[in-house]
Amino acid sequence: MGRxxxxxxxxxxxxxxxKRKNPxxxxxxxxxxxxxxxxxxxxxxxxxxxxxxxxVSRLNGRAGGQETSLAAAAAQKAAGTKAPASSKPKLxxxxxxxxxxxxxxxxxxxxxxxxEEALNDDDEEEEEFTGIEDTRTDIVKQLEAQAAVVVRxxxxxxxxxxxxxxxxxxxYGKDYNKMVFDRKLxxxxxxxxxxxxxxxxxEKSQKKA
Length: 209
Hints:
By secondary structure, the chain is mainly α. Among the domains are: 29 residues, no CATH class; 50 residues. It contains 9 helices and 2 strands. A two-stranded antiparallel sheet has the order 1-2. The longest helix is centred in the C-terminal third of the chain and has 17 residues. The chain is flat and about 105 Å long. Keywords: Nucleus, Ribonucleoprotein. This is Nucleolar protein 16. Involved in the biogenesis of the 60S ribosomal subunit. It is found in: Nucleus, Nucleolus. Its main location: nucleus.
């Protein structure tokens, strides 16, 4: 008993510093795609890496928590405070604007342009379409090129399917129409074309063996 009390007395009141790991924070190791793994920066977070590579970490729109750059904020503010090019309202053909003074007397009447003049003005103001700017990064272009190459994987027949096809061939030979109406050997009502493809695949596997 005395020994236990002595141990307790000698124990320091200062808590010992231990290295604790937050279970919710872990390093992301990209193992899905070799191209992303090669261009992955371990010092950056998942969202930062995806943004740098031109990808999105979440398909849904952000609800906040995203830092905006100072340059973008300043440009947006400058665009909002910019004065309009023309303070006069645009009048449609057949409309007129009456300008009055402080006493209500008519000073001037501004008439809208005719339909022909308005059509000519629209043609002059119409800007030439230069196309949509391609904002894709090189990584995105390479990933799209990888996705465009479709590698078709041939499905191998199971032993049960091989036995089923063999039973049909032994009973009917190459008469696929009779195979369709056999309720015992073809309970799932496979079509003649489907059975024919399975038989051809089975014959190829028999030749390889």
